[in-house]
From TrEMBL:
<dbReference type="GO" id="GO:0022857">
    <property type="term" value="F:transmembrane transporter activity"/>
</dbReference>
<feature type="transmembrane region" description="Helical">
    <location>
        <begin position="251"/>
        <end position="270"/>
    </location>
</feature>
<dbReference type="Pfam" id="PF07690">
    <property type="entry name" value="MFS_1"/>
</dbReference>
<keyword id="KW-1133">Transmembrane helix</keyword>
<feature type="transmembrane region" description="Helical">
    <location>
        <begin position="190"/>
        <end position="212"/>
    </location>
</feature>
<feature type="transmembrane region" description="Helical">
    <location>
        <begin position="350"/>
        <end position="369"/>
    </location>
</feature>
<feature type="transmembrane region" description="Helical">
    <location>
        <begin position="415"/>
        <end position="435"/>
    </location>
</feature>
<dbReference type="InterPro" id="IPR011701">
    <property type="entry name" value="MFS"/>
</dbReference>
<feature type="transmembrane region" description="Helical">
    <location>
        <begin position="325"/>
        <end position="343"/>
    </location>
</feature>
<dbReference type="GO" id="GO:0005886">
    <property type="term" value="C:plasma membrane"/>
</dbReference>
<feature type="transmembrane region" description="Helical">
    <location>
        <begin position="291"/>
        <end position="313"/>
    </location>
</feature>
<feature type="transmembrane region" description="Helical">
    <location>
        <begin position="124"/>
        <end position="145"/>
    </location>
</feature>
<feature type="transmembrane region" description="Helical">
    <location>
        <begin position="224"/>
        <end position="245"/>
    </location>
</feature>
<feature type="domain" description="Major facilitator superfamily (MFS) profile">
    <location>
        <begin position="33"/>
        <end position="467"/>
    </location>
</feature>
<dbReference type="InterPro" id="IPR036259">
    <property type="entry name" value="MFS_trans_sf"/>
</dbReference>
<protein>
    <submittedName>
        <fullName>MFS transporter</fullName>
    </submittedName>
</protein>
<feature type="transmembrane region" description="Helical">
    <location>
        <begin position="51"/>
        <end position="79"/>
    </location>
</feature>
Length: 475
């Protein structure tokens, strides 16, 4: 009883600390307290975008082609796309804190690999281990928040939810900046090594600020992990993603493999009581399913800019890796302003509509950019995509949290991150055949028209989604 009371007071302190952190009422202690719950989820998007400015330097240093270097992106994406819903399901069943800590330990180990094996295989292995480790934090944090809010009988702590979005948002935006500085000042290995001290610092705060798993009301389901479902889902997703990652490789045989695996996944999911992917829930929960689709569309457009435009800045416009990363600060500025605005509103439909529409002017600016464009033009172009990032990050998470069944919060939130990873992989698969070596103005113009089509599709999907009107109020 005394332990439960202590945990409740601890959770109250955490809630108040994050609220203070986000409202800027204190400047030192609350941000430190935020490190435990919101620091871990920031590592995956941080690593996702930090690599963007390092692909060319890594390819040059290790003697591999640009087409092979892109697997540093693909490796983390594939692992994360599969692992995030899996880690979420494990957190639902066995407890989020255990999964959270395990993930941080994996990140620490993965970050050290290039320090002792400075080669392309070493870099790829590091990305895979880091991808597995960082996949644990976000679904675990979402599960923890849901569990503790229900246990304490309190409204869902909106500031803490916003903190998760903002931390990921900021690290996504500043990833290319930090990546460029690390590559320029310390060498490409530090793109990976930096994860070890960062994860270690976050780990220090976990015992103090994250409630123990034994404070949960109950575990999700009594049948344990759906191992066959996980295996079939992995085969389906990996087959599809490998095909899309290299459309010119002639891997057409992967299509029937993915289709057969999908059929088996559906068949199996309808036979078991607690499937890994609850198809019945997804079919009956249109708001959640449409959110996943909306995230795939908008993040495909986002990552076409993050990866394609960054590569064009270095190849065609002549910017160095660190300068190309610094240009991305414009995205950070726009995104932070948008996240600050939406954090103070209970509406999600308007901001999500703005997030989709913002891809349209961003695409038009891309369509007329060239190697001689001014720095102001480039900053404006990149900044417009920050609107999509700022509004979309906070509000899509809000919809997932309100729409997903509470006992499946981990797997549902993990699937939302899978949707983002799918968007990134689709973007990478488009950039590969479109871009030459080096990238040209015409190449980035082609990407612009694809982004425009995605913006139109995302806008249509958002404005016609009636479920968004009812989303955004506290439980």
């Amino acid at each position: 009883m005394a332990r439960d009371l202590a945990r409740q007071l601890q959770w109250d302190e955490l809630y108040n600390s994050v609220n203070e952190c986000l409202t800027l009422r204190h400047r030192l202690r609350p941000p430190v307290r935020c490190a435990g719950p919101v620091g871990g989820p920031a590592l995956n998007p941080f690593n996702t975008t930090m690599i963007a400015v390092a692909l060319v330097p890594i390819a040059q240093a290790t003697g591999v082609s640009a087409s092979l270097a892109i697997w540093l992106v693909a490796g983390l994406y594939i692992v994360s796309a599969v692992a995030q819903p899996a880690m979420g399901r494990i957190a639902d069943i066995f407890g989020p804190k255990k999964v959270y800590v395990t993930g941080l330990l994996l990140v620490m180990v993965g970050g050290l690999v290039p320090a002792v094996w400075a080669s392309f295989p070493g870099a790829l292995l590091s990305r895979i281990i880091i991808g597995l480790g960082t996949s644990a934090a976000y679904p675990s944090a979402m599960t923890l928040i849901s569990d503790q809010a229900r246990r304490l009988g309190r409204p869902t702590p909106r500031p803490l939810l916003t903190g998760l979005s903002v931390s990921s948002l900021v690290t996504t935006a500043v990833g290319p900046v930090i990546g460029g500085l690390l590559v320029h000042q310390l060498g490409w290995q530090w793109i990976f090594i930096v994860n070890t001290p960062v994860a270690a610092v976050i780990l220090l705060f976990v015992p103090v600020w994250l409630p123990a798993d034994n404070t949960r009301e109950s575990a999700a389901g009594d049948s344990g992990l759906d191992i066959p479902g996980m295996a079939v889902f992995t085969v389906m997703l990996v087959s599809a993603l490998l095909f899309f990652l290299d459309l010119d490789a002639g891997l057409n045989w992967l299509i029937p493999v993915a289709v057969v695996a999908l059929g088996v996944l559906v068949w199996w999911g309808l036979r078991v009581d607690s499937p890994f992917i609850d198809l019945r829930m997804l079919v009956g929960n249109g708001a959640l399913t449409r959110t996943y689709l909306r995230m795939i569309i908008t993040y495909t457009g986002m990552y076409l800019m993050v990866y394609g435009f960054t590569q064009w800045l270095q190849d065609a416009a002549g910017y160095s890796a660190d300068h190309a990363g610094l240009i991305q600060l414009s995205t950070t500025a726009f995104a932070l302003v948008c996240s600050w605005i939406v954090a103070r509103s209970t509406s999600v439909r308007g901001p999500l509509t703005a997030a989709a529409i913002a891809l349209i002017p961003g695409a038009l600016l891309m369509a007329f950019v060239d190697a001689g464009s001014t720095l102001i033009y480039l900053l404006l172009l990149v900044g417009v995509f920050g609107i999509t990032q700022g509004f979309g990050s906070v509000c899509n998470q809000e919809v997932v949290y309100r729409s997903a069944p509470k006992e499946q919060m981990g797997s549902a939130s993990g699937l939302s991150r899978t949707a983002i990873q799918i968007g990134a992989i689709v973007a990478s698969s488009i950039i590969g055949p479109v871009f030459g070596e080096p990238a040209t103005d015409a190449d980035v113009h082609t990407l612009a028209w694809i982004v425009l089509a995605l913006g139109l599709a995302g806008t249509l999907l958002t404005v016609t989604d009636k479920a968004l009107k009812a989303t955004g109020t506290d439980d």
